[in-house]
Design goal:
The complex is a heterodimer of chains A (274) and B (109).
Chain A: H1 2-33, H2 42-48, H3 50-83, H4 89-97, H5 104-115, H6 120-127, H7 142-166, H8 170-178, H9 183-212, H10 215-220, H11 227-237, H12 241-266, H13 270-273
Helix pairs in contact in A: 1-12, 3-7, 3-9, 5-7, 7-9, 8-9, 9-12, 11-12
Chain B: H1 2-37, H2 52-100
The chains are: A mainly alpha (274), B mainly alpha (109).
Chain lengths: 274, 109
Amino acid sequence: MRTVGWTGVFLAPALTVFAAFFLVPLARLFAVGAAGPSGWAAYVEVLHNTRYLQSFLSTLALAGSVTICTLCLCAVCGVYLSRASFAFKPLLTAVLTLPLAFPGVVVGFLVIMLGGRQGVVAQAGQALGGDPGSAVVFAYSMTGLFVGYLYFSIPRSMLTVMATADKLDRDLEEAARTLGASAFAVARDVILPGIRPALVASGAICFATAMGAFGTAFTLATKINVLPMVIYSEFTLQANLAIAAVLSLWLGLLTRLVLILARSATGSAVAAAA
Amino acid sequence: MALATTSRLLDRAALGLTVALALFLSVPVVLSILTGLMVNQFQGFSAGLSLRWVREVVEQYHGAILLSVWIATLTVLINLVLGTLLAHGLRRTRVSDAGRGREAFRGRD
């Protein structure tokens, strides 16, 4: 009995903070969502509103495509880097993990460096003889956001994939090759299943980030129709607190659902990493 | 022989993709550093380099920078205390419950 008492003492501070800064605000948010003109029905009505539904779907599509793209790139490069041995490998690895420290706002700025009106792509286009009027500017749109989230997600996923690929049993691959499997078959049947937990774990984090990240979108343009921006403009510009609360809860619920699915798919601690 | 060639080709392709990714991640960083050091970003390097903007940022925004560092430090300290206590508490629960009946926790580990 004495053990239980002491355990309570250890758990109490963190649980108190968790309740005060997460559970209570969440409960308030839930109530605020129903405080609008349509009451509790607002939770269903937003799903019938074309504009909100559209932004829901485009956020999902953005997060999904960022996740798939990141995973494909990191699977190839992560496994390659964990296998390869050449003089520049430490440098290459360092460069690939450099953006880990950048917050979303900085990533947004870097996307403008790449795809803004004075960006690398626009200037390269002009240097190649394109006229200034038709310069390729992609930073202030959904494409810019896609590039930004890719930029944000690649270093994280790369580290996870590399760590897992380092631990793969090379004997299995050699056995497969000896038995006549093609390079493609080995990649599909031996390497891919081996790094699957890493892909699911980093994919879930990547998806959750792309669903809810705000800094990058805010730096690029306030008119991008993704859910975090819609919530921001409902809340700040139109003082529509109820709608902002309802959308926030739907966004949180949807993201949580994906994380739970990912965790049950691997049985590993995806949520802990997120 | 054909196998070795294919494998070398795949290797080259993977290396190319990795280098391309590294460029994608590093070029904007290098550019933003250079832009910060240019006297005039619209004229480019021809106008010369200087630490003027760096100095101005430190002069104007040192308050904001220090505030960020201060908030981050506080967060780390609070998290360190709460997280350590929580981890220790959770471990105790697991140990004492495991003593009582391991069955209940079978699904978890």
